[in-house]
Amino acid sequence: RWQQDVLPNLTPEQRSMIQQVTGKNPEALDMNNPADNIIAGSFELLQWVGKCGGDVQQGLRAYHQAEQ
To answer: Which residue, 22, 29, 38, is CA-closest to 3?
Structure first.
């Protein structure tokens, strides 16, 4: 889901944050690398929480429903 759903919706600020933390462009994150996967997952969850109006619990539920 990173390439298809999350990456296209990253803001310029989020892209910059990923670059600063990982030293990589967001497109270069490797989902088989645990550290990169954690970074990507945190931004995916951030997007779900945003879609749910900032409600963390609702965002987590929506995330889990999308997995199924």
So the answer is: 29
